[in-house]
Write a structure and sequence with these properties.
- The complex is a heterodimer of chains A (about 260) and B (about 300).
- By secondary structure, chain A is mainly alpha-helical.
- In chain A, about 50% of the residues are buried.
- Chain B is an alpha/beta fold.
- The radius of gyration of chain B is 24 Å and the shape is elongated.
- The chains are: A mainly alpha (about 260), B alpha/beta (about 300).
- At the A-B interface, helix 1 and helix 4 of A face helix 3 of B.
Amino acid sequence: MTGLVRAELKKITSTRLWWGLLIGALGFAALQSLVTAVFSGVEAGAGQPTMPGLDTDEAIRAVYPMAMFTGTYMFALVLGITGMTGEYRYQTITSTFLVSPRRHRVVTAKILAHAGMGVVYALLGLLVVLVVGGTAMAVRGYGLGFDAERLWVTMGLAVAAVAIWAVVGIGIGTLVRNQVAAIVLAILFTFLVEPLLTFALAAAEMDWLVKWLPSNASSALMAPGEVLVDYLDWWVGGLVLLAYGLVLAGVGVLLSVRRDVS
Amino acid sequence: MREGKQVDVVGLTKMFGALKAVDDLTFSVNPGVVTGFLGPNGSGKTTTLRCVLGLLRPTAGTATIGGLAYRDLPEPIGTVGASLEAASFHPGRSALAHLQVMAMGAGIDPARADQMLAQVGLSEVAGKRVGGYSLGMRQRLALATALLGDPQVLILDEPANGLDPAGIAWLRQLLRALAAEGRTVLVSSHVLSEVQQTVDQVVVLSRGRLVHQGTLAELDRGPRGVLVRTPTPERLRDALHGGSMKVVGSDESGLLRVAGGTTEQVGHAAFEAGVELHELAVEPSDLERVFLELTEGSAQ
């Protein structure tokens, strides 16, 4: 198994895609952190709620772990999707399954390797938001806020959440083997369908349903409390997210074990 | 020596929807010789090989290597080395990285990746991305991939495609050497002439069915007839009339094909009748034609 995981890591790092996605993730995380740090506590226009000020624990968590997660998870998801669909796109799946005809082992190795890459993305993302967000907070005259309540725990949970999103990507990739279709579907769902559903269901007082959506489960994991919807408890959110990842990946294992490769 | 293993295909059938790609196919491939796996495009060769390699699930029948299904082999690529399509590499990955990935996954010393690239003559471009490779270079890389695990059985699908004549000669020598070491070598091709000088045994497919298994010599039906050139073809026809020999055709240049006799018999009959001859020769056997006849009517 160790050999298969090493092989999967080598697959990821021997092409250029992971660099591009990493740069995108870090840039997006930096931007997210900067914008949050600059606008926290600033009076908003009429009718808009004021974001909590930088002296609150909530805002500090938003500048660091939340910004890192928001910037990074989509790129980890795409890395996971391409980790699976790329094998079909370039037909490397043939040599992959020749090396390891027990296919569930291949998919398991992919899950572990991509979760690992998710951790790497998230840790580097944390480094970036600590520098960018910390600088912005210091410039605005607040401290670095490292003593905020639950800050370091939330960072750890955010790292785990990014890793799980990479695993979700592997699951999606086994279900939808067309690379472009899989990425478009995933982005549409997370950027459009899920937020719209969240707004619509929340407006219809259906918080009991909306809190189970994957993005809201992620938010629950990192930012307990009530924002738009009534989130799950943080640990329930984490388990729900993990369940999404494992169920998708599990379906992927079952599918790829039986499927013809031609 | 590297002891080979026998490959057995028994009653193999593979349906794709309503299409029967392989139809109740049974044959064996023996160690120590090069076996050609022949048939036109679409006759089911690649489908059969994919069933042997556990990539496709047979609708019926079995395919085993030394008695084991591919997925049950303890060391898959150390037992069977295969290359299916020269195109199945990630264009953004280098040849070296591709082989290293496979070596890591199989628990083989990654240093073998360099050795294999040297063996197929790709050392100089080992670090270059495969996207820039020519078809011939990809074929060499595919061969390096197959040889990586020092396998007992080698299964190559159309390995000569895209190789230049020098490359084909090199491939021929390599395959013969691997078989001479005792390995099992199965090479598919849709062009008989490509493998004619390489193979000892052949398995010929047509429309997913076995039409011949044995040696190439068995396919050879011997001389096909006698070629005759004469300024008076009508008189030759008359001279042969009534005997066992017969003019069965002619080409544009006036060369006649005579069936049912030897050059001696044709020459004698012409001499007796006083027919002038300018050319008299044995028509050589034509394996390619036998092959085409055997596989006639296949898709494409």
